[in-house]
Amino acid sequence: MRVSYPFTAVVGQEKVKKAVLCGLASRSINAVLIRGPAGTAKTTLARALDGLVPGERVINLPLNATEDQIVGGLDFEAALRSGERRALPGILQRADGNILYIDGINLLPERMVHLILDAGRRQVNVIEREGVSCEHGCRFLLLGTMDPDEGELSSHLMDRFDICVSMTASDNVDERMEILRRGLRYEKEPAAFLNEFLASEEDLSSSVKKARERVAYIIIPPGHLDAIAKLCHDLGVQGHRGDIALARTASALAALDGRDQIVLEDLQAAVPLCLEHRRNDPAPEQTGEGRDDQEDKGQPPQQRPPQQDQKDMGDQAPSSDIESPLPPPPRDTTPKDQVFSVGRSFVVIDYIGEDKRAKARTSAHGRRDRVITSDRSGRYTRFQMPQGRVRDLAFDASIRAAAPYQRSRHRNGLAVVLDPPDLREKVRERKRGTRVLFLVDASGSMGAHQRMVAVKGAILALLQDAYQKRDEVGMIAFRKNDAELMLPLTRSVHLAGKKLEQMPTGGRTPLALGLSKAFELLTKDRSRGVRDRPVMVILTDGRANVPMSDGDPFQEALTMAHKMANTGVRFVVVDTGTSLPRLDRALRLCRALEGTYFRLEELDAGYLASSVRAIMSR
Q1: pLDDT tens-digit profile of 125-172?
Q2: Cα three-residue angle 34-105-459, rounded to 5 degrees
Q3: Which residues are CB-neighbours of 475 under 8 A, at least 6 positions away?
Q4: Looking at the annotation, which residues are catalytic?
Q5: Which residues belong to CATH 3.40.50.300 in the chain?
Q6: Superfamily of segment(s) 343-368+432-616
């Protein structure tokens, strides 16, 4: 008898229910992702699928599962007792013909998620490890849930989910009351509550089984294929997974409704399920300064209304109703907001290569990709002789080392006898992620000599590299009286390009506030055990004229820098100042951070990207 909360008893959430039912109805839909904050019944909905279709169970994959536990490996007990070499089934074999559920899939190492998605797509799991080579059927629906506040999946991984939907708490009072009433009744009288929804559960189960028989024969009219292709193109969907997922989901919706071909309503219902997490078209919202910039596009700054100039200048513009004792500054020296284009990467200059430190950094490039772990996380790649107590025994290597001496040892009924000299220890490696956060001075001084063009080009060049290495890159711009998160930590090159193009320049310089917010963003996940190498790249001339309190703005920035030093974050300071004589404020800031210092005029966009990569690789 089913004991999980009934699927049909879940109040509201029709879009999410529809998405999950599509995954159950169509064998060609391999993965469904549900996003939403804690407490919105994601887990309840997922577990409600247990037994909804007779014979299909929800198989839970814990976040601390090792690769051997997921994929399968050598059955060492059988090997030691009888000398037989056979495979020990993993979670993927148990998931065959069932629903594989991962709660908090965004917290699972990305390599593991890729491995599971690959097995589900191929419907075959291949075990090749520790002398065992075999394969087994592996057909399952992957159902993942995640809380975006705990971290996002990369855009590459998101694209591999056929369907992605968001789940939110109900804002309807009557619905909330019904959720409360049903929840309390289920806790108090579970048997009676389950019996109340027994008929609706059976009807839904029958509907899913009929849809499975029908979905393979659903007809997609040629005109609908054209509409799918054009829609995905217009929404900027990269690749073709979105097109295929949209067609499969529309077919599943038609099958669930008992029809033999899809109609326009099926496509309309499938679009938010399949394309919302894949779309790359420009964001429609434009508020505040962004909207004003669009309205004034193509209009020279001096032709804008006076009110607009004062709004853009912030604290630098004198109020119109207060008489100033000083004459206003010349109009051509008053900084205004500007939006610079993204510069191109240039040819790398080689004179910095003569610096011995630069050569040492460059030679280490690439070492950040993999790191040997001191715990049991990561992939078992080789073995070594133990240094002291054995913490992670390499059974296969130990058995091979002991094999030549078995005839001379007293076995006492054992198939294999291991002595201390035979013991070998596993060496595990894992990829170490890198989060690169650009802290950009977007004040008015950055507009001089088109410096922001080169800065934007450097950021985009590094982001291209981060996409290939599956690193995360974000950007905070500080200007006027605030530090704004312009680009959340992401691997989306397309999104970064859009944000960089739209980033304005102008206003005053709150350097200390920018340092504070950037450091908070880079370190906020460390309490949850996130393993990465955070790097902060600060592009500034070191000038500061907006304090966080009542102190000197630059001294506040230095104090903040001293607190941030030696905290596990790497700092790279790029001096964007060009005025003479040099004040070396950026250099003083770099020394306080104990970071690495460059001057912007010595670097072009391409060399800045390669230099920062070298710093991260040390």
Answers
A1: 888 776 678 888 999 999 999 988 777 788 888 899 999 999 988 888
A2: 95
A3: 437, 438, 439, 440, 459, 485, 486, 487, 496, 499, 500, 503
A4: 241
A5: 7-169+202-274
A6: von Willebrand factor, type A domain (3.40.50.410)
